[in-house]
Amino acid sequence: MIRHTVAFRLKHPSGSAMEQDFLRAACELAKIEGVRKFECLRQTSRKNPFTFGLSMEFADEAAYAFYSEHPEHTAFVKERWIPEVEEFMELDYVAHAP
Amino acid sequence: MIRHTVAFRLKHPSGSAMEQDFLRAACELAKIEGVRKFECLRQTSRKNPFTFGLSMEFADEAAYAFYSEHPEHTAFVKERWIPEVEEFMELDYVAHAP
User: Fold this and answer.
1) Interatomic CA distance for residues A93 and A72, integer angstroms
2) What mean pLDDT is predicted for residues B7-22?
3) Which domains are present in chain B?
4) Nearest Cβ partner of A91 from B26, B40, B43?
5) Alpha-carbon distance A19 to A11, whole Å?
6) How far apart (Å, rounded) are the C-alpha atoms in residues A37 and B69?
7) What's the mean pLDDT in A32-37?
8) N or C: which terminal CB in chain B sees fewer CB atoms within 10 Å?
9) pLDDT tens-digit profile of B40-73?
10) Largest CA distance in chain A
11) Which residue of A has its CA nearest to B24?
12) Which among A27, A44, A95 has the least Cβ separation from residue B39?
């Protein structure tokens, strides 16, 4: 299992229709084959600059790559993410037993 | 539900006994009352400087505060986290329906 997450802050005003429209478009990514446990999240800690997050899981690297390269994902990145996101950080996790 | 996460990088060499000892000590935090779905994670994206992560969930702000103020947590922060962690970022999430 690979958990892909991204914390981000939009250029849009908080609570705006543009913010809501962006988040709804992001949620459409959940429909791409292989995406599991998709979550739209609000980031609430004041210890970082981000206000939202997305989290999803993939069974393996192949499923992650299928998503990353999927035309619906690449179009979303080009048409929505790059123009509308002010700042972001990607974090990917796998289970670790120390 | 509040998901509390922290991504971090240790001062210890990768694969060292000190690294393993730190992670095992961190996992003891799972025993504090109110901590749910505790996960020890390896961070795998090259798009950030972190190598590990911890994730846990709390039912509400009261449970989160109980954890934050718990003597076992504050002792861990003072005796292990501050001396042994090079860099970290906390991210807290709640579900958001756009």
Assistant:
1) 23
2) 98
3) 2-93 (3.30.70.100)
4) B43
5) 8
6) 31
7) 98
8) N
9) 999 999 999 999 999 999 999 999 999 999 999 9
10) 45
11) A98
12) A95
Contacts of A32 (CB under 8 A, 6+ apart): A66, A67, A70, A72, A73
pLDDT for position B5? 98
Residue B44: phi and psi, rounded to 5, are -115, -10
The token pair at A32 is: 């791409």
Q: What is the pLDDT of residue A13?
A: 98
Q: What is the ipTM of this complex?
A: 0.95
Please give the backbone phi and psi of residue B29, each rounded to the nearest 5 degrees, phi first: -65, -20
pTM for the model stands at: 0.96
Neighbours of A50 (CB within 10 A): 22
A97 contacts: CB under 8 Å, gap ≥ 6: B40
For B21-84, where are the E strands, in sequence order? 36-43, 52-58
